[in-house]
Amino acid sequence: MTLDATDDLAAAQPAGYTLADLDRFGPEPPKSQSRTPFQRDRARVLHSSALRRLGAKTQVLGAGSDDFVRTRLTHSLEVAQVGRDIGAELGCDPDVVDAACLSHDLGHPPFGHNGEKVLDALAGDFGGFEGNAQTLRLLTRLEPKLLGEGRPYGLNLTRAGVDAAIKYPWMRGEGPDPASPKFGAYADDADVYRWAREGAVPGRKCFEAQVMDLADDIAYSVHDVEDAVTGGTLDLRRLGDPMERAAALYVVQDWYMPGESIDALDLALSRLEAEPSWLPEFRGDMRSAAALKDMTSQLIGRFTRAVVTATREAHGGGPLSRYRGEAVLPEQTRLEIAVLKGLAAAYVMSSAGQQPVYEQQEEIIRGLYAQLWNTGTTHLSPLFAELWDAAADDDARRRVIVDQIASYTDVTARRLHEALFDRAATHVTAADTPLPGLGSEL
């Protein structure tokens, strides 16, 4: 970093952050002082092609399956709003949290967690696949913004910005549970991962990443229930039936709270039902639609207030950022959030009607992987064809295939699969089946 660049950073240094937090992995010329480095980070994520593609990627229900339901993009925007509010209350830079929240799902492939599971199985012999590790790869390598000598730097965010997006701060097999499928970086991204984590407490998320993680849980627990109610798959009145209620709470326990008793989960659900805004019956008319929206708003307020109050009680009134302080989630709130997530799992994700959909999605991803591997650069977009040509060995080329598939939206994955496997389609080329652009941004 040049002296002039250091002087520029010092002039724009947000309170609570060091010059090292503002450093970027790849060198850049000095910028004007009209924006802070963190505002610039947020703008780079907001204008990225990876963020735009989330508009056609599955959140819970398939993208495009209903005009109301959320996609990964609308979910990310809502997470950013929740996270920004919590971060501002607790004193960390809201643009760092905002950028991390906008980034948190960038690495998710088509078809949501089902797509993630299939790609992890396909990539098992060369490092696996994990949506959060893929997010780091996009931010620091794949999303076009800055090219260096010998490697691209992705969006080249600040150290604080990259670290805030790392939800699982460990490499594959090195976390608290070595058998867990969750990790934050692939082996070939270890250099930028280690750079982002300089000065970090091993295995501990920075404060901004903790806020992002909580905002994600809060937003999707509430909004997935809202989507399920409006979509007709969840009728909250059915929870009044003891057998129905017990079955739903068993899914909550199985998916999210294996160490918690059914009685404790039932008590958490009862607390939510006792809220004045709880809507037991949704009819689809204007009055019930407004009441449902009020319920979601009140629940988000309930959870965010609980986090802010508990964190302030633990740390006092000073600003919290980076590795100063821990975000506190009260136990009662943790259970209530888990119950809402479990209701969506019980009535949407684990329903018998979804199984044929999951099987078709797996067929699409496995078929695409096989065809892209067997045809080399024929069906790769120009960016990934360039990475294929530069790859050092077969494992690196397989990683390129996984990167390409992960970049697809649900619609593109389906369309390309249909084109490649339609017996009437011959000599299909990349020009015949245009893929999502990865042009330069901001």
Any overview of this molecule?
The structure is a single chain. Among the domains are: 207-354, no CATH class; 359-421, no CATH class. Helices cover 56% and strands 0% of the residues. The chain contains 19 helices and no strands. It has helices at 3-11, 19-22, 37-46, 49-53, 72-90, 94-103, 112-122, 131-142, 159-164, 190-196, 207-231, 242-255, 262-273, 286-315, 331-349, 355-374, 382-390, 394-407, 410-421. It starts with a helix and ends in a 21-residue tail after the last helix.
Strand segment count: 0
Main beta-sheet strand count, sense and barrel state:
none
The averaged pLDDT comes out at 90
What is the H/E order? HHHHHHHHHHHHHHHHHHH
The oligomeric state is single chain
- The helix tally amounts to 19
Shape descriptor: globular
In whole angstroms, the N-to-C terminal distance is 22 Å
Approximate helicity band: 55-70%
Output the radius of gyration: 22 Å
The helix/strand class is mainly alpha
- Estimate the strand proportion: under 5%
Are there runs of 5+ residues with pLDDT below 50, and where? 423-442
Produce the secondary structure layout.
Blueprint: H1 3-11, H2 19-22, H3 37-46, H4 49-53, H5 72-90, H6 94-103, H7 112-122, H8 131-142, H9 159-164, H10 190-196, H11 207-231, H12 242-255, H13 262-273, H14 286-315, H15 331-349, H16 355-374, H17 382-390, H18 394-407, H19 410-421
